[in-house]
């Protein structure tokens, strides 16, 4: 099979630059384009130089559609509004769209799902192997333990992260809820302040920390009578998310249009 041609959108961001390096290092992949929004100071710059590499001969542009039409897929760690717009373009081009963007609303998700009628979309709150394995384990543990074990999700990220809880925390919370046969809409608790009263059995609580340059730390805590089970993951380098996203793109190439998750990519549904 020929090299997979990939476009990186949000190329000037921290994840965008990491993705540029990851694609450049992969012998089976080719950088087909790098996209930034109109007005970005990076427009016109060589994508290699943007990523701290030698020139790659790919100029950063704000015109995504021609690049999508000449590629096999796009990797997208941007913001919800941009991801929705890119999903529509990916649907027009009928290509792979890997989405690591977090903070999407239910309306955003509905639009992305609609685009997946024509694009092959892999969307996840976290692209790393470790986090998705953690989610599968959290689901299994939640299904095994009864409501005498309280479930809490703790997460910490760097001080520039704009959404809370993190997409990863929601991924883990949804996994635990699925294990219990409930939804986060029913049992999620995202704020505690003042005199809240005793914790309700069956609730799934979230705690959020922000500070410094933390890439990402997550724990799912099952707190029962006189014992706790703590499942955790610490991300030390954004490259783990890039590698997962590229694995998702490779997996999605040639598959029929639809909306997939990293559990599909990694075969974790039966864990």
Structure overview:
The chain is of the alpha/beta class and 271 residues long. Helices cover 37% and strands 24% of the residues. The protein is built from 10 helices and 12 strands. It has helices at residues 14-25, 47-50, 64-69, 80-93, 106-115, 129-144, 167-180, 184-187, 239-252, 262-266, and strands at residues 4-9, 29-35, 60-61, 73-76, 96-99, 120-123, 150-157, 188-189, 204-210, 216-224, 227-235, 258-260. The chain has a 7-stranded parallel beta sheet, with helices on both faces. A 5-stranded mixed beta sheet has the order 8-9-7-10-11. A hairpin with a 2-residue loop joins β10 (216-224) and β11. α1 packs across α9 (239-252), α4 (80-93) packs parallel to α5 and α6 (129-144) packs parallel to α7 (167-180). The chain is elongated, with a radius of gyration of 19 Å.
Rounded to an integer, what's the Rg over CA atoms?
19 Å
Percent range for helical residues? 25-40%
The side-by-side strand order for the widest beta sheet comes to 3-2-1-4-5-6-12
C-alpha geometry: elongated
**Which class of secondary structure composition applies to the elements?**
alpha/beta
- Largest pleated sheet: 7 strands, parallel
Summarize model confidence as the mean pLDDT. Answer: 96
Beta fraction of the residues? Answer: 15-25%
- Uncertain stretches: none
Helix and strand element order: EHEHEHEHEHEHEHHEEEEHEH
